[in-house]
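In this section we walk through a basic example: taking a raw amino acid sequence and producing a predicted 3D structure, encoded as discrete structure tokens. The instruction is simple. Fold the sequence below.
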Amino acid sequence: MECVVSELEGRLLKDSDTFCYFMLVAFEASGLIRFALLLLLWPVIRILDKVGKGDMGLKVMIFAAVAGVGESDIEWVARAVLPKFLMDDLDMEAWKVLSSKKEKRVVVTKMPRVMVERFVKEHLRADEVVGVELCVNRFGLATGLVRGGSIHNVSTSDCKCMQEKCHNEHQLLRPLPVIFHDGRLVKRPTPSTALLILLWTPLGICLAIIRIIVGSLLPFWATPYVSRLFGGKVVVKGRPPPPASLGNSGVLFVCTHRTLMDPVVLSAVLRRQIPAVTYSISRLSEMLSPIPTVRLTRIRHVDAEKIKEELSKGDLVVCPEGTTCREPFLLRFSALFAELTDRIVPVAMNYRVGFFHATTARGWKGLDPIFFFMNPRPVYEVTFLNQLPVEATCSSGKSPHDVANYVQRILAATLGFECTNFTRRDKYRVLAGNDGSVSSCTSFLHRIKKVITTFKPFLQ
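The resulting token sequence is shown next.
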């Protein structure tokens, strides 16, 4: 069968340098020490590439990044971390040429096949990926060696190499977007960026501790002002509603869910403590939280009664997506909130950070606030929308699902995001290989394992 072949690096990807992807594997799958070691080897790798010693520079990168790392950890990075960075570097014109071909589409890569296969097949819709294979020992650990020879020896005798440029553009043709991704690093770890991360990390840890301690001691009305002294910023748009009057039910603030800090920031903006509905946050996060939390059970009638009880006392915050999403997409909203009250105020939450993501699917969520405050200049944006009119609520005969979908749409439009039908379960199946459910009888050893997994980048 005839096929069309395209190289990944330097053609489908704008940058031919693969160093940053091995740095991501080193950091996310192993730890900060390996990350630093690989950075120290960068001059050697560059020299080997310059003098033309075959694939020696590439082999050094592979060995330094994965030797002794579990195969499952490498596969997780390839599934949950790398696609986001690969998509950001995608050359759309080259991809349009490849995707327009009716022949079998083959992508050749210098990196180990396992690192890019999922991205290339699922997002770029290629049929086959050709690359070297990692050698794994009987304990499931990568040896750092590869088999399959050099990529320069790949036979293309029965294939056509993709060389032409795209002249007839397909305007509506797009690769499948990366909606879910994990890992702690925000920026592509090029040598200069990686050096900045290494230098900033100890300072960032100290700054995070100071920010958390100061924030926990201050009254809520002072938080937005003092945060500026420590590099933080809160941008408020729209007009928040006044506190619920005595004898009236509270307002239900329906927020987009970006980080665990959403309800805390909202309370700081409103200058009063607003209880937040939670499900799977860690006990440490609950203890550190400066606002009351209401833990749900995912049993519909039980949760409905809890929310009604809280609303009878005053205002309440709920994030109906059920989990965070980093990309400009909103997950499907649970319709439960629409059944319980007509006093609904949508709030569009968004944030910007420089070095570290403040969410995780695989690591320990208790460290999410710490990673957020480790960033040099974290910024939160809070946009209050008008309270839903009665005709847009269930009181006018609308179904809870229609109300939930309407709130999702207006929040997405406010942020410039896209609505999706993906749920919490979809996210965790992609990023963690489970459905995201939390068992009340989680074992002590499992908790320790999660702590070790999260601390890997800083302790190993």
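Looking at the output, two observations stand out. The two ends are 48 Å apart (CA to CA). Confidence is low (pLDDT under 50) at residues 166-172, 439-448. In the next section we compare this with other chains.
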